Design the sequence.
């Protein structure tokens, strides 16, 4: 079975450019999460969705960040305009419906973003 | 993040036991987790414990929970070079949202 798929794996861009990160969750999972990993702050939850609806976006750093989930099999995280402090690894994770809940999140391999 | 604290680095010799510690602040946490991140990969669930338990053992892994002190530990017996990774402590309040710590990088010296 395919796991969570993220693209691109690596992105290098210049300050001020728009960045779009993409995620395909595991089929049948109805929760989707976006996390950001940095050395200083560890793993931070940015936003999560349930059945394509954003539930909690309190972790989104500022208005430059936006996330969408137009359907059950696709989500995007957009940064516009990007800044050097946005450099991090961005992870997407999904989890199955509550009835099967064991607390396990299934993570993608991450998108490493470098903003110059 | 700041709700979950872990030391950043631990170095042990192959064959020794490793103990990774974590403290958390949320007293409403229902599930507590240990995830493992290998280089260049996402996190994978290693083990979890319910907040009404104080110990869980799974082969070489032992999880200890001190709910009064909000302290969670992961002991890895007979540590192997393949155990080298970053270990994340996390908790949730009974729903899917998981709050993680900064991660502890475990280095196993052959």
Sequence:
């Amino acid at each position: 079975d395919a796991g969570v798929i993220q693209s691109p794996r690596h992105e290098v861009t210049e300050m001020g450019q728009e960045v779009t990160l993409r995620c395909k969750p595991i089929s049948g999972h109805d929760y989707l999460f976006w996390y950001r990993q940095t050395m200083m702050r560890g793993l931070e939850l940015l936003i999560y969705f349930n059945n394509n609806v954003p539930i909690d976006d309190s972790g989104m750093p500022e208005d430059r960040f936006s996330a969408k989930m137009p359907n059950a099999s696709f989500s995007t995280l957009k940064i516009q305009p990007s800044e050097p402090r946005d450099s991090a690894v961005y992870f997407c994770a999904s989890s199955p419906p509550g009835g099967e809940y064991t607390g396990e999140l299934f993570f993608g391999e991450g998108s490493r973003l470098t903003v110059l | 993040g700041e709700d979950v604290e872990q030391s950043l680095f631990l170095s042990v010799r192959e064959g020794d036991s490793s103990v990774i510690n974590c403290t958390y602040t949320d007293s409403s946490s229902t599930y507590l987790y240990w995830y493992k991140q290998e280089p260049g990969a996402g996190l994978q669930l290693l083990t979890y414990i319910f907040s009404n338990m104080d110990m869980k053992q799974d082969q070489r892994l032992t999880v200890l929970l001190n709910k009064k002190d909000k302290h969670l530990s992961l002991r890895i017996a007979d540590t192997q070079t393949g155990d080298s990774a970053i270990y994340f402590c996390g908790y949730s309040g009974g729903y899917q949202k998981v709050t993680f710590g900064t991660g502890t990088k475990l280095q196993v010296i052959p």
Q: What stands out?
A: Chain B touches chain A through 22 residues (CB under 8 Å). The CA atoms of residues 62 and 100 of chain B lie 19 Å apart.
